[in-house]
Amino acid sequence: MNSSAAGQHLGADIARPTGLDDLIVIAGAGGFIAGNLTRYFHDLGYRRIRAIDRKPLPEWYQHVPGVESLSMDLSKEANAVRAVEGAVEVYNLAADMGGMGFIERFRVECLRSVLINTNLIEAAYRAGVQRYFFSSSACAYNTDLQASPEARALKESDAYPAMAERGYGWEKLISEMFCQEYWAERGLETHIARFHNIYGPFGTWDGGREKAPAAMCRKAIEAKESGDHRITIWGDGLQTRSFCYIDDCLVGIDRIMHTDALIATPVNLGSSELVSINELVSMVEEIAGISLERTYDLDAPKGVAGRNSDNTFIESVLGWEPRTPLRDGVAETYRWIAGEYAKRRAGHAVAVG
Ligand code: NAD
């Protein structure tokens, strides 16, 4: 993790206006992406990082040495104000979220993330923060454009006319607008990435909030363990998605945050390698060295029929796009989940979701 094949640290080639003693605040750091982002900036040499999450500290996926780690609910205004005190940059990745099983069932929880986003951006503006990052989602796109597995890849302008995913997607869209208007009216520099299915180690792999790659890896591990090779797939397995490996996501966040041409401009951060869920399962089978007996639960939440990331815009601005092959990223994720699974079986406490 966090090192390229050449042994160079991830992101070492990116130019940033910040100094290593500037205070960086990372919200949602007990979770998957922000936890990895905390490790990423720490490994780049940043000495003042404040990591925040609502979860109690023992439940965080990662504990990064030397980082000020606070357990606070950022939907409360006073906590948001405390969180950003003295910050030069704020990375807001805190949200009540999960895979399709979560976001289709708990729309109110998803919508209430607007409290985190409104409080944190206002606090950041008042504190004179220099740059503010917001993690939006492909769920903000018009769902009418995603009605078939062959749907064309989504480009940034496809969010409007708006018909976002109910609950979660609409919240992302309105919070994007907050970012755009804080820049337009108040001059707070904001950066917005629309993530497309990020996956990798140190993320949710059990408990109901996990996403497809982690869920498939865990199911394959359970099948190997139990000898029962039956696996239930949500939907008909023909639905298509692209999945973006965490290392690409971290580098993408860093590049997007430090590019003036992307101020207040939502940009896709995703892979353009499209696969069906059936293909993803075959990949996991091959990695696990197992053959699974598939059954399909057509009533389970499955989301839109097809979704891919059009990377024309990000490539044109940054000369970069996520490129980790899915096979490599899933192998790494499988290896990590198998390790966590074994630790849990041996009676050790592990974070799952
Ligand atoms: P995650 O659930 O692992 O992390 C989010 C963290 O936010 C959790 O640890 C949670 O405890 C914390 N949180 C929730 N409410 C909070 C509150 N009131 N105060 C403080 N912390 C709070 O999810 P993730 O996958 O790391 O996602 C990070 C961000 O990226 C989220 O905004 C999410 O919507 C967005 N995103 C993720 C994906 C993906 O594929 N993982 C895709 C699109 C968008």
Bound molecules: nicotinamide-adenine-dinucleotide
Question: Within the CATH hierarchy, at the fold level, what is the topology of the domain at 7-203 and 243-272 and 310-324?
Answer: Rossmann fold
Give the percentage of residues in beta strands.
15-25%
Low-confidence stretches: none
Count every beta strand, where a strand is a DSSP E run of 2 or more residues.
Answer: 13
Task: Estimate percent helicity.
Answer: 25-40%
**What is the average of the pLDDT values?**
95
Radius of gyration over alpha carbons? 19 Å
What about the largest sheet? 7 strands, parallel
Query: What would you give as the CATH superfamily of the domain at 7-203 and 243-272 and 310-324?
Result: NAD(P)-binding Rossmann-like Domain
CATH class of the domain at 7-203 and 243-272 and 310-324: Alpha Beta
What gap, in angstroms, lies between the N and C termini? 20 Å
Q: Order of strands across the biggest sheet?
A: 3-2-1-4-5-6-11
CATH architectural arrangement of the domain at 7-203 and 243-272 and 310-324: 3-Layer(aba) Sandwich
Q: What's the tally of helices?
A: 10
The global form is globular
- Derived structural class: alpha/beta
Order of helices and strands: EHEEHEHHEHEEHEEEHEEHEHH
